């Protein structure tokens, strides 16, 4: 396939009147349009105003999608234990499937091509199957909770680990490596030391399996961990093996100097979730400090009950604006830095190689946007536009691994109407009041 | 016209399966659909998923629209004096008209039905004419700068005031009162005492003319005012007559206790501009304190060079999220409070009576949104949806004073393609580098 338009190769390179040629799952050529047309005259053609690498949602809860808007204006632990966990506990396999499909649908429609997805304790198979069917690239994991969990979610430590291992064997690396596994203890508050140490053992036992958990999102959370373990949260995670290049820690809002050193020294990846941190009033992550230390910082929307959308453009905008106002520094997180977070840094955090740039030999994970709209007029700078003014609604084309998932604004891998209708039906029966 | 759908009457009342009946410029009935259909069987009909009061952009610079994205990552005074003012100074009448049309087009498309518009020093007629033609409700004013202004914008005090008076006589109250005048000194830094006192005199001389200016947005700004006048900014404005129920002060980020007392005692209106305050790293306005004191707080997008869009839904979301994270208080500015700011409070600040609710006898300023989209699925609470997940792209219908401006997603009062094309053409010739 030969796609033409203005091509954003990476945060530094833009090709006007350019083209991208895709064969199988790879980009085979990127350059100016006329040269590409000459070299590949027989390829199927399509055209979009702007072509860019697909974005990476590096911390998301697709299976919370049925709970969009159920718990506005509440703090993290109340939000979690009174609303979101009871909802997760109540979901049947069918409902979990519907929730995951709704989440992936929203991501595909709005330009997310890769996600790191924190599922739930039960029915993780449903999300894996939905991700396979809908074609998104994902690092997914079943949640483990063997301590401090509401009825219906609390598990035996061994069960949590053995179910995780079953899922690794079943799904890790399927679809040509498009779907991969992340061991997913919920957070230190809800997991025993045995569970956390078991997580590290399993991660080491299977090649390229990663670890994904929440860390230091909220002050009550870090206090609880400190009371229970006598250590600051990241120190504790480090002690039980939950740091390293194969670990993605979501949030990391409340870390001290010594914890930041650990993150940097161990090469641990951090996912910044600005909208979620704002809406749950968690705080502002010290993103500039992380970047200064060379930590890979990715970007995530978190879940629909705390965002309330999965739009990656809203998140890019928020990422920059929140740092600017928090530091009273208008130069903070400029557009190119945010764009890197949302693309190639996210892919690195998720452990996907050659994903996140539009470059020869890289994976064909692409999006096409329209810019013949008022919000994009005039268009002085495409990166500025993408970060500060674009919106998921502008995305008209989505491709993962060379497969077209959305074309001309229509998702082609699933019946979007049907997914929404099923989600509405299940959501109407949810018992979400605390 | 009989419009049916879920009707948001105000921040507290939602009618499912409802209808709104419009005759001339007024809402003549609001209620359940079947009753309305029975009572008004011969009215032209239309249907949208969600009907709501149009939003009020209570601080905007439509004529800066050609500068969308020209000065990202800069602080207020640099942003203003190195980029935005030179751009404003350079605009011809034709370019000013194109910029205003682009701004109003974006507002109409995304659901803003009333604006308080801070124009520029020259060619204000062009914006008034554009507002008349495009049908938006507006409180507009020519900017006055008789001190501290770049070449091309600096005016004589008398000229600034007499030109303002000419515009009042020409446009204040035209279109059945849809267009009204606000005397618009830029800010205390750029206006002499004579200009500010003259502003108050003129406002008192003409019935229902208001005053609109920037105040205490930035720390450098308030320091400058304090150096020059020996007073905190709001004290100074109060002394020269720029407080009161007929005054709208944009921003008010850096006010102390005594200034807040003045704002409350004088009934001065405040416009909160969260995205602009974040992007320019100005700071966080003490909105809760203002609300606690009974101050009318409205909401504004400010201009495209500092936002970078005029989407009122982005601004509502931002309004709440910024307060939550700043106060580390998840209950801060819940959806209904924000919705009131963006509708009826904005109308009150702008001095338009019976605007901002969907209520019998009130002005027919309405918007219709679609919710059969993934981002609105499921839809547990329509107000939560509007504030936290909706977007200007969802707006398919816009009516002001009973006149349809947009229907089925198409603006009917202007040629949107042509406005965008003209804006692109002029923007390409802008000399915006400092």
UniProtKB/TrEMBL annotation, chains A, B:
Domain Amidohydrolase-related: 51-404
Pfam families, A to Z: Amidohydro_1 (PF01979), HUTI_composite_bact (PF22039)
InterPro entries xrefs: Amidohydro-rel, Metal-dep_hydrolase_composite, Metal_Hydrolase, MQNX/HUTI_composite_N, MTA/SAH_deaminase
Entry keywords, A to Z: Hydrolase, Metal-binding, Zinc
Keyword Zinc found: yes
SUPFAM superfamilies documented for this protein: Composite domain of metallo-dependent hydrolases, Metallo-dependent hydrolases
Aminodeoxyfutalosine deaminase/Imidazolonepropionase-like composite domain residues: 18-42
Molecular-function GO terms, alphabetical: deaminase activity; hydrolase activity, acting on carbon-nitrogen (but not peptide) bonds, in cyclic amidines; metal ion binding
Xref: NCBIfam families: PRK07228.1
Record protein name field: N-ethylammeline chlorohydrolase
Species this chain originates from: Natronolimnohabitans innermongolicus JCM 12255
Lineage, uppermost ranks: Archaea, Methanobacteriati, Methanobacteriota, Stenosarchaea group, Halobacteria
